[in-house]
Amino acid sequence: MRRLLFIIAVLLLIGCANNESRRMKIETTESLDIPEETTALSDSDAYMILIKQKLQEHLDRKALAKSNPDFAIETDRNTSILTTEGTQIKHIDFITPIKTTSDSIKEILIKVVTEQKTDTIMTIINTSKIEIDGELLTTTKVSFDTIKK
Questions:
Q1: All residues at 6 or more sequence positions from 58 whose CB lies less than 8 Å from its CB, including other chains
Q2: Which residue has the higher pLDDT, 17 or 96?
Q3: 76-92 burial by CB neighbour count: b if 16+ within 10 A, else e?
Q4: Predicted model pTM
């Protein structure tokens, strides 16, 4: 009787081991070949995105310096640009085309529309090339100024 139970147990184990539902199949999945999006931004679109990011960063720094005077945050030379606290930029429009002052300096007159008001600001973009570890990198500095009347 013991032998019979042992044989049944062995057959049961062998039968379950070959069961397709128990077998794990590793299916080869095709790699997701997502084609690189080659969206070519025009210079004006790229500058628009850069200016919006830097202007919002400038406004956030001013709000932080105003709410926490312990922080020694140096803002640009002109502190009258969009003085409303907590300002969020809705959109930016170019008033004048990109004017190249020199090979590294570009000036653009922009209209900034915020939640509270609309303002006109002179934007100065200064680019320079530096070499770090044998690799040539381009740095970009954006500064803002009011229009001189």
A1: 75, 76, 81, 144
A2: 96
A3: eeeeebbeeeebebeeb
A4: 0.62
